[in-house]
Design brief:
The longest helix is centred in the middle third of the chain and has 32 residues. About 55% of the residues are buried. The chain has about 450 residues and is mainly α. Helices cover about 75% and strands about 0% of the residues.
């Protein structure tokens, strides 16, 4: 049953990302047609990240309490409405509608947060890395198909890719409604609390009151324990646990540096390649598709084999993280100096491999810490990406306006080199037990 549910979830995620891929790569071009500068468009793009900061933890926590399916459905319907508004705004050249659409999709679009939580629910720590790699590869496959389709359709009218995107969201909504099971809340179903999850202890070994914070029982009626009371209880304990967890802080810094680099490249990729290589919108979308293809190939076909090889050789994460970051950094620095498409496409393979190794292993390490409340935890952790999506578009625009076409990728490469140095020092004990949360408090102290 678990594998079947994962397949349906991956199908829904595929349709969701396919809808995004048809439209989002065209946003910089839409902004240029509206007469926006790189910097102005960057600030408009930041609205999405600002909205995500507020919605991620809340939507994730609701999924912990009420179940993943309801939040999946809300995300898909909200995205459908937001991208329809974006298409109309682009047609009438309205920056107001463009901005509002980005806020709406930022508030409701939490598909990947919930999908990651869904994978955590349906897998064990031993099988999770491969399942996460499959999930991430699905998103890239969707971009392979969606980006060129959106580019081709946009040559006639922006309404064509928006219409196809809407069909994807409606189809995904229907599949989610009829095929994804509503299993209810996940609190306490695997582990009692984050600290216990990190130490691999099960609810049968420690009762709720011995946890760092209590998890309300799920068999009580809603009237007796309101959903928002449950969410507040969860947030309070989860935040305290994260704040005290030394390893969590280190993971957060590493995630910030890595994500900021990725988003800076993403937000500038279409504009840089279009202007540097004199590409049409259609040709630029093909390059976006190629980039996604490289990422998907690495995640789907290579990451599992590399993971097995590293485990067989007992290579520690303290070595994997800095090497992966250096690969990504070197690739970006070289890409920034490419003036021909052939070497660019070759160098992108090195970056894809580095990004995949870093992302999959960091995600697996994080979900291992917070199995019990992964929805809320992923929402809070996802705020790192949301903050990056606030900062990166503005930074990317400023770098393009002040430093030229090579500056965003050079800057992103430098961030990865800094990340490699940081991982070498800060995550040198990522495989150790010492950085895990402290043991549960004694039962008598809670009475």
């Amino acid at each position: 049953m678990g594998k079947a549910q994962l397949r349906w979830m991956n199908t829904v995620v595929f349709l969701d990302i396919l809808g995004i891929a048809m439209v989002v790569p065209l946003l910089p071009i839409i902004g240029r047609e509206m007469g926006l500068s790189h910097t102005t468009y960057g600030f408009v793009g930041s609205l999405y990240g600002i909205a995500q900061i507020f919605s991620g933890p809340v939507m994730g926590a609701i999924s912990d309490v009420k179940g993943r399916k309801s939040v999946f459905l809300l995300s898909l319907m909200g995205a459908f409405l937001a991208y329809a508004m974006l298409g109309y705004g682009a047609t009438v050249q309205s920056i107001v509608l463009l901005s509002i659409s980005r806020v709406i999709v930022g508030l409701v679009k939490q598909t990947m947060t919930i999908a990651t939580a869904f994978v955590t629910d349906e897998t064990t720590t031993e099988t999770r890395t491969n399942s996460l790699a499959t999930l991430f590869s699905i998103t890239n496959i969707a971009f392979i198909i969606g980006a060129p389709v959106g580019g081709i359709l946009s040559t006639k009218s922006i309404l064509y890719p928006v219409a196809c995107s809407s069909v994807c969201y409606i189809t995904g909504f229907l599949l989610c409604y009829f095929k994804i099971e509503d299993k209810g809340g996940s609190l306490g179903t695997k582990q009692v609390c984050p600290s216990l999850a990190a130490r691999g202890l099960s609810p049968s070994e420690y009762s709720n009151k011995k946890a760092p914070h209590a998890i309300p029982d799920q068999d009580q009626p809603t009237e007796a324990r309101p959903i928002f009371s449950t969410i507040l209880t969860e947030f309070k304990g989860l935040w305290e646990d994260m704040w005290k967890n030394v390893l969590m802080k280190k993971i957060a810094v590493a995630s910030f540096l890595s994500t900021l680099s990725v988003v800076i490249v993403q937000t500038s990729f279409t504009m840089v390649t279009k202007e540097r290589f004199s590409l049409t919108s259609k040709e630029s979308s093909y390059l976006v598709s190629y980039q996604a293809g490289m990422n998907s190939f690495v995640l789907f076909f290579l990451s599992g084999k590399i993971e097995k090889f590293l485990k067989s050789r007992k290579v520690p994460l303290s070595t994997v993280f800095p090497v992966a970051a250096l690969m990504s950094g070197a690739s970006l620095v070289l890409q920034a100096r490419c003036h021909s498409l052939k070497p660019l496409c070759g160098i992108m393979v090195l970056g894809a491999l580095g990004d995949a190794l870093f992302k999959v292993n960091l995600s697996a390490l994080f979900t291992k810490l917070y199995e019990a409340e992964i929805g809320a935890a992923q929402g809070l952790f996802g705020n790192i990406e949301a903050i990056c999506r606030v900062i990166a578009p503005a930074v990317s625009g400023l770098l393009l306006d002040t430093g030229g076409l090579s500056m965003p990728w050079t800057f992103a490469g430098a961030l990865n080199i800094i990340l490699a140095a940081y991982c070498t020092s800060a995550l040198s004990r990522a495989d150790d037990e010492d950085d895990l949360p402290s043991k549960p408090v004694d039962e008598k102290k809670d009475d």
